[in-house]
């Protein structure tokens, strides 16, 4: 049985664990049935090495049929693989019914070594990997303020409904730079009220900043929001009615705005603004606790930020700074110690003892 080291050199990680417990006491009925500390053999020199994750089992109240599945979609990219692994750990650890979680991973390059890495790290995980064809966005992406926002995989969420199986009607889309510290079934159960997307809304944010002067000075374009009360929402955490997305052609609606962007440069932030153009003011708002975003700092310098006031169910390192990079550089923000306990990367093995 693995034990947490109590040596002083790992005190920050211990404090990180304690902080999570204080922020959100764990009430899940799942039980860890064991963990093997043996290192997973590196399948590729380009991929990080991970420990095997603990196995968590369903509580007695959990069903076992397809109707009980909770579908979660995420992307798989080499630069964010470590974040994806940590996010998955956090989801299954805090779920009352972890065996009912089904993951849909989208990858730009279907690599057997990534499949091997997931199988080795999560032997009990229910998942599929789908190849996202980058040609779908060839010629449609415009340069934004950060190179990471311009990667084709960042646009995969637009095509999610076309990629996952047709019998999946609802999915929770999650970015790879977050952790969940609550039972995801609470978010899954949201009443969509005939909306195609449910997400936290931030109506106090300056909505005009997400679009250029060229957009607001063009009467034909600025009338887009007529009759709506548009509010900012972060596309890194969304409940999506993918059935409705398919039948009402939302992929095409988003693509049409991407085409306008190529001609007139009406925004600067990658795949977010076209979502806002199509959906802002017409989504189902959910509690802000489900996306404490911006923890990566500002988009230019990545300065540290703290938690927003209020309860926390999901912590999201959107922005320039990613917790694994800051921890590795030994220049972490305080908030990064909340992410560290979910990190399965080999370099964090020092905090575990056999």
TrEMBL record:
Query: Keyword annotations for this protein?
Result: Glycoprotein, Glycosyltransferase, Membrane, Signal-anchor, Transferase, Transmembrane, Transmembrane helix
One GO CC term on file:
Golgi apparatus
Main site of residence?
membrane
| Localization in the cell | Endomembrane system
Q: In which pathway does it act?
A: Glycan metabolism; pectin biosynthesis
Pfam families the UniProt entry points to: Glyco_transf_8
Membrane topology, as annotated, equals: Single-pass type II membrane protein
What broad class of enzyme is this?
A: transferase
InterPro entries documented for this protein: Glyco_trans_8, Glycosyltrans_8_dom-fam, Nucleotide-diphossugar_trans
MF terms in GO:
glycosyltransferase activity
Question: Does the record bear Flavoprotein in its keywords?
Answer: no
- The highest taxon in the source lineage is Eukaryota
**Enzyme Commission designation:** 2.4.1.-
Family the entry assigns: Belongs to the glycosyltransferase 8 family.
What is the protein's name according to its record? Hexosyltransferase
């Amino acid at each position: 049985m693995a034990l947490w080291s109590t040596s002083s050199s790992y005190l920050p990680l211990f404090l990180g664990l304690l902080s999570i417990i204080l922020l959100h006491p764990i009430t899940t009925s799942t039980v860890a049935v064991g963990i093997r500390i043996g290192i997973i053999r590196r399948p590729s020199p380009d991929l990080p090495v991970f420990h095997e994750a603990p196995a968590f089992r369903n509580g007695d109240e959990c069903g076992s049929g397809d109707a009980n599945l909770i579908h979660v979609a995420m992307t798989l990219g080499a630069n964010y693989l470590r974040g994806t692994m940590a996010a998955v750990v956090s989801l299954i650890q805090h779920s009352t019914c972890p065996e009912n979680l089904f993951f849909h991973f989208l990858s730009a390059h279907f690599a057997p070594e990534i499949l091997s890495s997931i199988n080795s790290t999560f032997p009990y995980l229910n998942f599929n990997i789908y190849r996202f064809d980058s040609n779908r966005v060839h010629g449609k992406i415009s340069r934004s303020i950060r190179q990471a926002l311009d990667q084709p995989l960042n646009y995969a969420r637009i095509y999610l409904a076309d990629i996952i199986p047709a019998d999946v009607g609802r999915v929770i889309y999650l970015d790879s730079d977050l952790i969940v510290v609550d039972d995801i079934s609470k978010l899954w159960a949201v009443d969509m009220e005939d909306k195609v997307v449910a997400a936290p809304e931030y109506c106090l944010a300056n909505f005009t900043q997400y679009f250029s002067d060229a957009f607001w000075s063009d009467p034909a374009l600025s009338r887009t929001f007529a009759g709506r009360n548009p509010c900012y929402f972060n596309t890194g955490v969304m409940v999506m009615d993918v059935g409705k997305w398919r039948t009402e052609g939302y992929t095409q609606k988003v693509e049409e705005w991407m085409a306008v962007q190529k001609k007139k440069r009406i925004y600067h932030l990658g795949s977010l603004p076209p979502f806002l153009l199509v959906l802002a003011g017409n989504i189902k708002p959910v509690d802000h606790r489900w996306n404490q975003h911006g923890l990566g700092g500002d988009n230019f310098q990545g300065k540290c930020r703290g938690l927003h006031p209020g309860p926390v169910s999901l912590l999201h390192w959107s922005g320039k700074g990613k917790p694994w990079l800051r921890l590795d550089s030994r220049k972490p923000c305080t908030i990064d110690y909340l992410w560290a306990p979910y990190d399965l990367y080999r370099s964090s093995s020092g905090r575990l003892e056999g």
